Predict the structure.
Amino acid sequence: MIYDDFYIKSLIKTVEDWPKEGISFRDITPIFSDPKGLRMVADAYIHRYIDSDISHIACIDARGFLIAAIIAYELQKPLILIRKKGKLPGKTISQSYKLEYGEAELEIQEGSVESGDQVLLFDDLIATGGTLFAAIKLLKKQGANIKEVAAIIDLPDLNGSQLLRDSNVPVFSLCAYEGE
């Protein structure tokens, strides 16, 4: 299926003043109730990475899990969950970070990746990059290499994707909301 930016953007809804006043939240959940949209998004990533040398797909809690699970299944790659603090069983390592509207902490299970693993890191959206940088630190602490960060949406006005590129992390997104 050919990816259609206009169609996908028509599914993404903007929720004003959520999770706090002044934030325009880009809601991707309508994509999941639209079979055509979900297939279009999943296929775009599958085609992008089918011949790549990634060994693992890591994804960030929680919307990042949904598309990343499809990609991992189709590409037959291990799926690594990066979750909010206190959500993963067993031994974990954690990393705190700042959000555009607060602070949080992420965790990954010890031994999820190891030295030499080539990881695609997936999240639903790139804003300031805080969440992604925390996830990158967690993966690198265990020796993994970040092949690329992928997201459905990029908000380039918040500079996260540029900060990632400036840190020599390749970035790919399906669509961007700039100047809005």
In short: The radius of gyration is 16 Å. The CA atoms of residues 71 and 145 lie 19 Å apart.
